[in-house]
């Protein structure tokens, strides 16, 4: 997971964002955990900031509209050359479009949608803002994966949307696929069957690189977050699943590849 040049092939995860109730407290949490600084971003959907690492944009955080009881969750955006056309394809393939497509000032054009299993995803047509500017160093998003009930039908949806090549992955007997674009792995799908959490349903998960998974997991709890899955060794490195103080779930991983 070393730092690499940013790719914008349609279908590539290109940005992650989070909508929260307490923006200031969330900035404090992620600033302390990942070393992010913040600058204002487009305000079309309300107060919004971009997290910066060494001056480079890595993620966005916005404030939820007042009075709406919406869950806080990290949202994975997939790159597209035409947000309107992609939104039409989502609808025709059994998904739904909840927001947009709409302009985000000069930054680009976006939509928020859900796949047929209900997992929420973002669509981003870049203009002035291409998306995550760096991936690899600690504090940056390094992988995105979809957890769903079963992968077969969902994989057909994403293949129709962006032309992914889906190949089996994981141990024998597991329902796991890797999505590739131009031969390059860009995301993964996990079919959990009845083990899919009922309170969350199908969902995309973002992994952030850290220098030390065990130390970062302890820091999460010290900062008011929760540890959902203790640090463990996995194929991508030492991993833990955590939440921020508002309950947004994400993964921290030390890949050991730097």
From TrEMBL:
What InterPro entries would the database entry show? Anthracycline_SecMetBiosynth (IPR052164), Glyas_Bleomycin-R_OHBP_Dase (IPR029068), Glyoxalase_6 (IPR041581), Glyoxy/Ble-like_N (IPR053863), VOC_core (IPR037523)
**SUPFAM superfamilies, sorted:** Glyoxalase/Bleomycin resistance protein/Dihydroxybiphenyl dioxygenase (SSF54593)
Any Pfam family the entry gives: Ble-like_N
Query: VOC domain: which residues?
Result: 12-126, 140-255
**Can you say what this protein is called?**
VOC family protein
């Amino acid at each position: 997971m070393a730092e690499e040049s940013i790719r914008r092939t349609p279908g590539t995860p290109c940005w992650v964002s989070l909508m929260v109730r307490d923006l200031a407290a969330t900035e404090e949490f992620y600033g302390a955990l990942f070393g992010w600084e913040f600058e204002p971003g487009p305000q079309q959907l309300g107060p919004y900031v971009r997290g910066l690492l060494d001056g480079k944009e890595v993620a966005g955080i916005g404030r939820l509209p007042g009075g709406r009881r919406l869950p806080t969750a990290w949202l994975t955006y997939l790159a597209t050359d035409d947000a309107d056309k992609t939104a039409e394809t989502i609808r025709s393939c059994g998904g739904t479009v909840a927001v947009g497509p709409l302009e985000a000032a000069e930054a680009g054009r976006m939509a928020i949608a859900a796949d047929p299993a209900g997992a929420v995803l973002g669509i981003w047509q870049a203009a002035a803002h291409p998306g995550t500017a760096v991936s690899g160093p600690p504090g940056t998003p390094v992988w995105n994966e979809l957890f769903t009930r079963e992968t077969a039908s969902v994989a057909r949806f994403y293949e129709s949307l962006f032309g992914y090549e889906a190949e089996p992955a994981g141990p024998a007997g597991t329902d796991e696929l890797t999505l590739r674009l131009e031969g390059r792995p860009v995301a993964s799908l996990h079919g959990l069957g009845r083990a899919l959490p009922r309170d969350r349903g199908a969902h995309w998960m973002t992994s952030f690189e850290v220098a030390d998974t065990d130390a970062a997991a302890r820091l999460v709890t010290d900062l008011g977050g929760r540890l959902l899955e203790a640090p463990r060794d996995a194929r991508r490195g030492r991993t833990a699943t955590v939440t921020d103080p508002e309950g947004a779930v994400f993964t921290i991983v030390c890949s050991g590849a730097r």
